[in-house]
């Protein structure tokens, strides 16, 4: 089973891109879609049954959009994930920490991240013009992994963003 998850804080401008894209894809693509917001340790329960996980998230990357596969070396990564959780609680854990703990069950999952470069991460609702363009690129990139109507997904994404900006 395959799932697309959107991650991000919609109240921190461009950080919410993954969540907005997940909203646009929900019901449109032929696999499960989950908007997991800011995530926390509890998202493990939401995604543990999937063999392939595609994560869409704002990322500190060099280009506008990048795709990469997450590999976790359990011997080295699990202690760091536990330290992160014990020092900062489950809400301050990184997505990598969460995925490391998820993979500790020995299930060989394929985890793909489609990262989009943010322009601004600060308090606010909606996306910068640059992030809207990057979000459209993410939707195009997702076509490499799932067969769906890209044009319809783009329309939905832009509609969600227009609705947000008209309200705030």
Automatic annotation (TrEMBL):
GO terms for molecular function: aspartic-type endopeptidase activity; enzyme activator activity. It holds the Pfam family HycI. InterPro entries: Pept_HybD-like_dom_sf (IPR023430), Peptidase_A31 (IPR000671). One of its GO terms (biological process) is protein processing. It comes from the Archaea. Keywords: Aspartyl protease, Hydrolase, Protease. Gene3D superfamilies: HybD-like. SUPFAM superfamilies: HybD-like. Belongs to the peptidase A31 family. PANTHER family: HYDROGENASE 1 MATURATION PROTEASE (PTHR30302), HYDROGENASE 2 MATURATION PROTEASE (PTHR30302:SF1). This is Hydrogenase maturation protease. It comes from Acidianus hospitalis. The lineage of its organism: Archaea, Thermoproteota, Thermoprotei, Sulfolobales, Sulfolobaceae.
């Amino acid at each position: 089973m395959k799932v697309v998850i959107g991650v991000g804080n919609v109240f921190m401008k461009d950080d919410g891109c993954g969540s907005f894209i997940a909203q646009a894809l929900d019901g449109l693509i032929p696999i499960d879609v989950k908007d997991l917001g800011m995530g926390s340790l509890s998202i493990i329960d939401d995604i543990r049954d999937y063999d392939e996980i595609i994560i869409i998230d704002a990322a500190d990357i060099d280009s506008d959009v990048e795709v990469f596969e997450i590999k976790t070396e359990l011997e080295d990564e699990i202690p760091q994930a536990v330290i992160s959780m014990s020092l900062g609680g489950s809400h301050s854990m990184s997505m990598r920490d969460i995925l490391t703990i998820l993979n500790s069950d020995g299930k060989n999952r394929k985890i793909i991240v489609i990262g989009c470069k943010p322009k601004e991460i600060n308090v606010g609702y909606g996306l910068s013009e640059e992030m809207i363009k990057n979000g459209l690129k993410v939707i195009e990139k997702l076509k490499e992994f799932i067969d769906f109507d890209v044009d319809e997904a783009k329309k939905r994404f832009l509609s969600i963003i227009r609705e947000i900006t008209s309200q705030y």
